[in-house]
Amino acid sequence: MRFDPRPLVATVALLLALPPVAAMAAPLPAKVFADPPAISDVQISRDGRHIVALTSPNGQSPTISVWKTDALDKPVAVISAAKVRILGVSFLKNDRLLVRTIQTFTFGATKGHLSRQYVSDLEGKSWTTLLPDGRARSETEAFLAKFDDASV
Q1: Cα–Cα dist 41/32, whole Å
Q2: Can you give the residue ranges of every domain in the chain?
Q3: What are the pLDDT tens digits along the chain (152 aa)?
């Protein structure tokens, strides 16, 4: 039995004649890769009563969404922060969230980022720093103390 190359040649010629699918698709804008994911950091509380996640439905600043597992059809509690960008969220206890944030700041000619961790209730009504900073001892520390309040 001898190998007949004609069907193989015809198939290759047909594939080369068709335009590649990737060439027809419009390239994605760079913003798509910089946008936050629609949902991330999903966790279930230890008692199983709540689910928390970092959500960004429109690619805007991430917010914290909290669901009650016994009422998933009910509206979600959404927690946002006005002065900081939320980087992550997890359960600290069944009724407390650990929220990781970052904020840009300028102090004179110095520009930088201030990273903080806050403890919040499930509704986002009370925010406290994870560890107290104590009394400000210098002008720089007094300036940084102004950022302790995430002001939801």
Answers
A1: 19
A2: 29-145
A3: 677 777 777 777 766 777 666 567 788 888 878 888 889 999 999 999 999 999 988 778 899 999 999 998 988 899 888 888 999 999 999 999 999 999 888 888 888 998 889 999 999 888 888 877 655 567 777 777 766 666 54
Burial of 99 (0-12, 13-18, 19+ CB in 10 A): buried
Full-model pTM: 0.67
120 burial via Cβ count (<10 Å: 0-12, 13-18, 19+) = buried
Please state, in angstroms and rounded to a whole number, the distance separating the CA atoms of residues 89 and 54.
Answer: 7
64 and 79 in contact (C-beta within 8 Å)?
A: yes
C-alpha distance from residue 92 to each of 55, 89, 144 (Å) = 19, 9, 25
Q: What residues are paired with 114 via a beta bridge?
A: 103
Integer angstrom CA distances of residue 45 from 35, 41, 50, 56, 147: 27, 12, 5, 21, 29
Q: What are phi and psi of 9, to 5 degrees?
A: -65, -40
